[in-house]
Design brief:
This protein is of the alpha+beta class. Helix content is 42%, strand content 21%. It has three helices and two strands; from the N terminus they run αβαβα.
């Protein structure tokens, strides 16, 4: 959608992507190249997982909880 909107905007716009942490680098690269081909001038991406998932992972691997 950003590339479609760009033709009606005088200034550039940025696009933020939240990418799953387990997405392969090859797929991230494809996203970046496709955005560039579509005319997206500024792109910010973040590879992360939800805070709640990180907390659950921390609880599962808690050494003191193994008792």
């Amino acid at each position: 959608q950003a590339s479609i909107r760009q033709q009606y905007i005088d200034q550039s716009q940025s696009l933020n992507l939240n990418i799953p942490a387990d997405l392969p680098v090859k797929d991230v690269n494809r996203l970046l190249i496709e955005a560039w081909k579509l005319g997206v001038k500024t792109l910010y991406y973040q590879r992360s997982q939800s805070v709640s998932k990180e907390l659950v992972n921390g609880l599962v691997s808690c050494k003191s909880c193994e008792g």
